[in-house]
Each structure stands twice: as C-alpha cells, then as structure tokens.
Amino acid sequence: MYVAHLSLADFRSYARAEVPLDTGVTAFVGPNGQGKTNLVEAVGYVATMGSHRVAGDAPLVRLGAERAVIRAAVVREEGRQTLVELELNPGRANRARINRSDNARPRDILGLLRTVLFAPEDLALVKGDPGERRRFLDELLVARAPRLAGVRQDYERVLKQRNALLKSAAGARRSAGRAVDLSTLDVWDDHLARAGAELTARRVELTAALRPLVRAAYAELAGAGAETVLEYRCSAAAEGEPAPPTPQQAYETLLAALGRVRKQELERGITLAGPHRDELTLRLGPLPAKGYASHGESWSFALALRLASYELLRADGGEPVLVLDDVFAELDARRRERLAALVAPGEQVLVTAAVEEDVPKQLAGARFAVTGGTVEKVR
Q: Among 228, 248, 250, 317, which residue is least crowded by beta carbons within 10 Å?
C-alpha cells in the first residue's frame, strides 16, 4: 500500500500543491515552518480522518479560504488505485468522494489507507496523561477494524447525554435542594454499558497483542535493559481485578460499577466509570515509565509502541505507509540508526527533516525541497 500522488488545495500553508510519490523512501527537507509537516499531516488525515497536531479541522484550512481539499491516489493490493478526496468544511459537515463518486461518507474513507506515524508528539504516549494512551489504542483499533469508529462515536454520544443528565441533577440539588427525575438514569446506564463494553474488550485484546511486539521493538531500539510491561486497567473493575476480556463480561462489569458509584456521580455531575477513564499503564521492569524512565528510555518506549502498531497492521494484510515527521533530530545517534534500520524496508516511508544530515544514510531515496510553501523534487 502506498500513496502515488498527493494533491492539496487551501490546506494549511498550501494554496495548491501537487506531489508525485513512489514506493521506497521519500524525504521532505527544508527549514522549520516551511510546510513539511503539513504534507505528511494531509496523508495522515486521509488514513485517520483526523490530525495528529490539532483536535479540530479549522486550523487545517488556509487563512482566508472557506474549505480545504485533500486528494490522494492510493495504490492497494495488486496495483489497484483508489482516488480519495476529502473536503474539509469547518463548522459544517465534511464531504468525501471515492473514485469521484459523491455517494461516499467521510467514514467510508477509513481503511482505504493505513499509516503509522512517528512524531515528536509521541513522547506524550509515555509522559502524557491517560487520554493520550487511550487515543493511541483507539486509533489503532479503528485502523485495524474501521467499523469500530462507529462504536467510539456511539459511546461518546451516550456519555455526553448521560453526563448532561448527571450535571442537571447535581446542579438542581445544590441550588434548590430539590429532587430531579432520575427514572431514565437506569436506561442510560444500560446504554453506556453496552456502548462501552465492546470498546473495553477490544482494547484489552489489543493490549495483549501489542505486549510481545513492544517488548521486542524496545529491545531492538534500546538494547539490553529492563523489559517493557503493558497493562490495561479498567476503571469499572474492582481494585486488583483484571480488565474484563469479553464484551459480555465488560458489560456486566461496567453496569455493576455504575451502580456502585451512582451516589458520587450525582454529587459531582459526571460519569465516573467507563472506557473514558481507563488507562494503559506502561512500565519498565517494576517501575512506571512515566516519571521514572529517562528521556532516551521514554523515546524508545514511544517508538516501540509505533513499531508494534506497524507489525500488527502488516500482519493484518496490506503494509501501512510509514511516516516519520521530524523524529530523527530528537534521537541520539544510536537510536537514530536503529530506528532507520527497522523502517527502511517499508513499502513506502515518508520522512521530514530540517536538513539533509538529519536523514540517516539507510533511508536513501527521493528528495523534495520544501521552502516558502513550494514543494520541488530535487532527486
């Protein structure tokens, strides 16, 4: 799988850009702030329907423009090419086309292109809050099974509505001391448990699949040292109990937890159990990686998570595009060389770098110079 051509209109800093691509390594080289990351961000958006840099679409539209357009020609198995077009309309519904058909929805794009992105922001996977790790799991789940995007959306919708009911109840109690009709709360409990059960079970399953791959990748990057440990901690499970491994067990566990914490929820006006409060814990040996791992160890752990994702997606069939956005400048010489050796065999590898010297020699290939919003192939 690879992107054969990328076309942008009013995306980030680009009024227009046409970038022909091929298999192997392609590096976009130029000073900071010239638009290198914007190119690979557009590729990632086609794969995930989101940006790794911002939460909303508004910053993706060039200043003064009403909308942005991304077109990507994606070559899949047996040389079949699919033209994917996305129109980003901040404040309104985005539009999608597949092979120029207007019948596609943005969600239909998911699965047509798969990417694994390495970026400086990845350090937050180790050092950041639990939400970063939950998002990592969920994005990988959707990459492997696009239908799970709908499961995530269903859960978030139910959670929002249940929180609104709890907030209303808490506010009424505090301001007037009056009771609020909570007859529908049991119904919302059931909806939340059903929507969250599959998400929880799939995360548990994914964590188990990642565990040996992360351990192997970390050893490749860091050499000898403590082993990595991944553990999925379910907020609904009782202290010391493992996370439920099946959707039915997850449903029963979450429903019981909602019953236990109802009093606290009514006082605070927020849902206190569910996948939105779960955690993927990362350890190096017996110690938590967050707060104890060195900077280099943290980088190795974050990169190992991405490399493990790549291996899982490869095993599913169809090699994903590897994107390395200004990563090598962040790494010491040893980790730089080891990472380059691991990703070099990829079917398509897209690299951004401020200077040519930041691109390891193992990643020889096509080069584009990016300056002042222009993209020019130099070799």
A: 317
The answer to whether the CB of 145 falls within 8 A of the CB of 291 is no
> What is the CATH number for 33?
3.40.50.300
- Tens-place pLDDT, residues 13-30: 999 999 999 999 999 999
Instruction: Please count the structural domains in the chain.
Output: 1
Judged on CB neighbours under 10 Å (0-12, 13-18, 19+), 92 is exposed
Q: What is the pLDDT of residues 251-261, one digit of tens each?
A: 999 999 999 99
**What is the reported pLDDT for 173?**
67
- The two tokens of residue 116 are 């694994």
Q: Within its chain, how far is the Cα of 223 from the centroid?
A: 27
Q: Would you say residue 255 lies in a domain?
A: no
Contact 320, 115 (CB under 8 A): yes
- The whole-number pLDDT of residue 123 equals 92
User: Cα dihedral sign for 289, 293, 299, 303?
Assistant: negative
Residue 229 resides in a domain: no
Residue 372 has pLDDT above 90, yes or no: no
Convert the pLDDT of each residue in 223-232 to its tens digit: 777 899 999 9
- Are 376 and 340 spatial neighbours (Cβ–Cβ below 8 Å)? no
Structure tokens at 8: 């942008």
Q: Which positions ≥6 away from 313 have C-beta within 8 Å?
A: 114, 116, 143, 144, 319, 320
pTM (two decimals)? 0.90
269 within 8 A of 163, measured Cβ to Cβ:
yes
Convert the pLDDT of each residue in 162-195 to its tens digit: 999 998 887 776 766 566 667 788 899 999 999 9
Tell me whether residue 248 is in a domain: no
In a domain, 106, yes or no: yes
User: DSSP of 231-279, one letter per residue?
Assistant: EEE-TTSPTTPPPP-SHHHHHHHHHHHHHHTHHHHHHHTS--SSGGG-E
